[in-house]
Amino acid sequence: MPTKKVSGVDRFGLVTLKYSSEAAVSLVIDVNNIYIVGFYSNNPSANPQKAYYYFTGDPAYATDASKLFDADTSVLPLNYGGDYGSIGSRSEVDLGRIPLIEAIKTLYNRRDPNGLKNSFTVVIQMISEFVRSDLVMNRVLDNFAASKPADRDMIFVENNWESNSKAVRSVTSSSQYFATPITLPSGTVIKNVDEAIKVGLVSLLWSPTSTTNNIFMHWPAFPSLSTTN
């Protein structure tokens, strides 16, 4: 893993989600922190056909990330950011196979940019948060067929990725205790790295100086999204 953050177009990568040969979207990922910064779809039925929509918050989302696409791609701003406060409540949005398929469809069709927020809530949790924490990954997979919203533990872990990573980095041995124990909303108390690993608190550590661009080599696989619907 490089020891410094990357910049320019190299700062961004693509994760393509496809459930059929007709419908696919490419999520634009900031490899420094795994944030989703926008998405691209090539839909012959849409106007424009090729479009990259990006969140507000960083000029590089428009200038650098857009270089991933052909010159004839329309680069269009969304009027909101990619944080959960901007896109909606996680406790009210199901995660699972069907919600992910519907999110892909909605982003692919992109009829109303303001109607995409629930879809972003799904893909951010099922892609970015999925990689950051084994707790999130395991609970998403456990309910992949049934579909359920994020529970309180998942939301806590998602909200505290940076601080939990700092706690893990602050100790030199996995058996050493954190300065302050981490308590999940369910009541589980995590006192050291061994317990953090057992719970799945953090599987990919946040870092202020290094990039996570090797995640694309190790991205966990979902069960098939193939559908006959």
- Give a quick account of the main beta sheet: strands, pairing sense, barrel closure: 5 strands, mixed
Specify Rg, calculated over alpha carbons. Answer: 18 Å
Give me the CATH architecture of the domain at 8-132 and 208-217, please: 3-Layer(aba) Sandwich
Tell me the strand order in the biggest sheet. 1-2-3-4-5
Q: Helical content, roughly?
A: 25-40%
Measured by DSSP, the beta-strand proportion falls in: 15-25%
Protein name: rRNA N-glycosylase
InterPro entries: Ribosome-inact_prot_sf (IPR036041), Ribosome_inactivat_1/2 (IPR017989), Ribosome_inactivat_prot (IPR001574), Ribosome_inactivat_prot_sub1 (IPR016138), Ribosome_inactivat_prot_sub2 (IPR016139)
Pfam families: RIP
Catalytic activity: Endohydrolysis of the N-glycosidic bond at one specific adenosine on the 28S rRNA
Outline the structure in words.
Helices cover 31% and strands 20% of the residues. It has a domain at 8-132 and 208-217: Ricin (A subunit), domain 1, CATH 3.40.420. It starts with 11 loop residues before the first strand and ends in a 30-residue tail after the last helix. A five-stranded mixed beta sheet has the order 1-2-3-4-5. With 229 residues, it is an alpha+beta fold. It has helices at 60-63, 84-87, 97-109, 117-132, 134-142, 152-159, 161-169, 193-199, and strands at 12-18, 24-30, 35-42, 50-54, 74-77, 94-95, 148-149, 177-183, 189-192.
